[in-house]
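About this split. The held-out portion is used to measure sequence recovery: a designer receives only the structure tokens and must propose an amino acid at every position. Recovery is the fraction of positions where the proposal matches the reference. Here is one held-out target exactly as it appears in the evaluation file.
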């Protein structure tokens, strides 16, 4: 689905992503882990078109999508969510979802004036779809609630719901569990697994919660200092010496080893 080859993104002399190469298989839920500053979010931003790469390429299903802007990638089915949910706070949850699909008839002034029936019919179809999405995510009771008034975890579910309003092929989830209580995190995890199993969604997930990653993701990719360190199952990656060193540092890793043999 996604092939990233020798990707780099520099900010002056700082190499946030430094020659990273990785693959995201179609139909997978791939985890992306690494210590703070590893380059994970910058990688997401380059792949999703928010940043231009300094060098390297990104392919989606064999097509070169390097540097394409987010709106073009959106129409190709590549979407991403953010660490902080971006909702329209003054609108209801159902209205937030209805806003997502592009090229709606009501956006054309002529249609708004002279094809009001067609515009209303389309809005009703979108409303029904949005309500179905909220029901799938188990937050249909919030349909008429203003998005600014729901919890952080519910906002993350709403962001996930946006991807369901269009024909998403691959969704990049950036720290979907940040600031979310355990109950809602389990609900989000259930929704991701169902979307993957029932609707064929491909996901790439940045997350620090290793229990969450272990439940959802295979394979798991670890980044550090802008590079890919290791890839495999969650247990293989967690036990990789390079990964342990990246998270703990050489000194602490050696102290742990000494304690284990002491």
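Reference sequence for scoring:
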């Amino acid at each position: 689905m996604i092939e990233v080859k020798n990707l780099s993104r520099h900010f002056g002399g700082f190499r946030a992503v430094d020659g990273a190469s990785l693959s995201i298989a179609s139909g997978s839920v791939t985890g992306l882990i690494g210590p703070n500053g590893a380059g994970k979010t910058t990688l997401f931003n380059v792949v999703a078109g928010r940043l231009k790469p300094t060098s390297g390429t990104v392919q989606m299903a064999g097509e070169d999508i390097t540097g394409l802007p987010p709106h073009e990638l959106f129409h190709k089915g590549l979407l991403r969510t953010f660490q902080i949910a971006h909702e329209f706070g003054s609108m209801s949850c159902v209205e937030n979802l209805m806003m997502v699909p592009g090229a709606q008839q009501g956006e054309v002034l002529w249609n708004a004036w002279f094809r009001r029936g067609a515009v209303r019919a389309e809005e009703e179809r979108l409303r029904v779809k949005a309500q179905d999405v909220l029901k799938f995510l188990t937050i249909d009771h919030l349909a008429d609630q203003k998005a600014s008034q729901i919890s952080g975890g519910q906002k993350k579910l709403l962001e996930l719901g946006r991807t369901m309003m269009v024909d998403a092929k691959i969704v990049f989830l950036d720290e979907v569990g940040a600031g979310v209580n355990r109950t809602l995190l389990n609900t989000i995890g259930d929704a991701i697994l169902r979307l993957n199993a029932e609707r064929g969604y491909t996901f790439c997930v940045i997350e620090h919660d290793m229990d969450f990653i272990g439940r959802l993701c295979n394979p798991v990719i670890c980044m550090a200092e802008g590079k890919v360190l290791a890839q495999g199952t969650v247990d293989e990656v967690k036990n990789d010496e390079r990964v342990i060193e990246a998270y703990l540092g050489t000194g602490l890793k050696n102290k742990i080893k000494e304690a284990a043999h002491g």
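Annotator remark: The longest strand covers residues 14-24.
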